[in-house]
# Entry
Amino acid sequence: MADSTQTIINTILGDITGVIPNFSSLVSSYRLLVGSAEEIQRTPGVPFEIFERAVIRFDRAGTLIDILLELLCCKIAFSSQFLAVTCAPVDIIRLLANCGTLEDDSCRTAEQIVILELLRQVLDHHCHDNSCFGPPPEGITPSTPPPPTPVKKKTEPLIDSDLESTNELETEVTPVANSFYKYTSPLSRRHI
# Structure
């Protein structure tokens, strides 16, 4: 029989808690390797090959960090999906199954959680499905509001001064466009 103190949450998160210390240690090492490569580069008289090896060293440590990040992402995604099956604590089944007496603290805690969740479900169902005021009186039925009428956009007539400014712009742009057209090749004129 499995150890009764081993909880589901510890099992689910066990891999993550096992990897994180190694990940933290590797990140600290990476920072030291980057710092030492920077110091090597600033030290006069050190051959370039030594600096290159230092860069390769911290690059390899960075690759290991990337691998652990992928692993942690996979483990955390699985754990969060598993734990999202219910919003209640996942260990509640074990607590209820191991109830010896009602005086047991874990048994009382599990029962309180179940009762509070049932109460929440009942109140949530009652308050959201029905109005607190009850149904409307007989003969009064709620109706849907009429669809909004589209607003007609009022167009304003053009003023003579607007037409004159448009004509002025047209006469200014046309010579420029004609001179551009004159100096372009026949191939590029097809796209104009």
